[in-house]
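Narrative of accomplishments. A recurring question from our advisory board has been how the design workflow behaves on a single, concrete structure rather than in aggregate. To address it, we present the structure tokens for one chain from the evaluation set, followed by the sequence designed for it. No filtering or post-editing was applied between the two.
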């Protein structure tokens, strides 16, 4: 609890510094030098456009996280087998029907207190704006053993990084302007990379079990276009789905790792280093699965992307981890010039390759 409170306090201070420093610096710089993104609905390019101008914006975060070709290969199979119940399954058609209904129910309701879901229960909605129908909402299917991470954005909400809560705002500052929506695209490719590392590691290959994950978009999903300005020498543009979901196995946990247990702390740090900063080190991300006794992870977002790592963090304790993150954020907020940001826009280190 002590470490969690320190982390939250640090984030608050860092965000105040970033907001102040960004506003004060951009006033005195030519607008042409400041990174900017422009958004609009892809089917109405002459309609209303929205913009965000901020020193934090970097091309890799805005345009390098969505790999449509890869994700299309990770769609639901025709029959989805249950994780730990041999012989039990649900058809792709049924599961997609439930997801379509879920999306319609969320989009049609602007108040959390009035939201009634037919086939899902909400696990977490701290990073979701009901009024704007945007952000990340995590739900459990009540009929089948699957968890759904549903992402919604519009051209307008995509350029409002401070409208969805404290943690998303922190990631925006740290991660080149990244948000939960963009980071969500990294969950499946990062899981594949982690699984490859596990398979090649004799110590861990029989001790870790990861959840399966699939990509989904509604049948008639609307796309929006994002264009980048002043973010390097190349023209930057992407067409993104306004709604998508990551479906994953529900993991029944025996227990979560705890900061109070030295063995848990040491194992968490070892695994983070094993995966090369791909995995969120937060202690609650590690759980022991019921029945199998194997270690697994709740989140597989690419951690390097979330905090904009350009070199690996090396630490021996959770206190060291928090201290390094605080230092990195202060450097991003106060000591990085526009010239440095432009140079980095054309130099993407290997650690940011999902």
């Amino acid at each position: 609890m002590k470490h969690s409170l320190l982390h939250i306090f640090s984030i608050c201070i860092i965000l105040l510094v970033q907001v102040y420093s960004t506003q004060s610096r951009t006033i005195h710089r030519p607008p042409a030098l400041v990174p900017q993104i422009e958004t609009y609905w892809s089917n109405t390019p002459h309609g209303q456009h929205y913009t965000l101008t901020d020193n934090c914006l970097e091309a890799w975060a805005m345009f390098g996280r969505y790999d449509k070709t890869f994700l299309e290969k990770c769609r639901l199979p025709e029959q989805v087998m249950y994780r730990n119940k041999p012989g039990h399954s649900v058809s792709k058609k049924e599961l997609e029907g439930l997801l379509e209904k879920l999306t319609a129910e969320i989009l049609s309701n602007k108040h959390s207190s009035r939201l009634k879901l037919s086939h899902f229960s909400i696990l977490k909605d701290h990073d979701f704006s009901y009024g704007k129908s945007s952000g990340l909402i995590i739900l459990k299917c009540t009929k089948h053993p699957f968890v759904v991470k549903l992402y919604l954005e519009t051209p307008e909400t995509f350029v409002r990084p401070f409208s969805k809560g404290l943690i998303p705002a922190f990631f925006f500052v740290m991660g080149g302007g990244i948000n939960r929506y963009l980071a969500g695209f990294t969950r499946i490719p990062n899981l594949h990379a982690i699984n490859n590392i596990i398979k090649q590691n004799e110590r861990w290959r029989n001790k870790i079990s990861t959840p399966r994950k699939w990509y989904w978009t509604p049948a008639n999903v609307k796309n929006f276009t994002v264009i980048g300005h002043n973010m390097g020498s190349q023209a930057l543009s992407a067409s993104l789905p306004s709604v998508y979901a990551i479906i994953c196995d529900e993991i029944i946990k025996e227990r979560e790792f705890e900061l109070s247990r030295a063995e848990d702390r040491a194992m968490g740090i070892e695994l983070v280093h094993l995966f090369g900063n791909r995995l969120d080190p937060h202690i609650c991300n590690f759980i022991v699965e019921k029945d199998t006794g194997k270690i697994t992870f709740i989140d597989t977002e690419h951690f390097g992307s979330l905090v904009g790592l350009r070199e690996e963090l090396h630490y021996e304790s959770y206190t060291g981890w928090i201290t390094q993150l605080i230092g990195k954020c202060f450097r991003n907020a106060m000591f990085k010039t526009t010239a440095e940001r432009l140079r980095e826009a054309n130099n993407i280190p290997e650690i940011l390759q999902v």
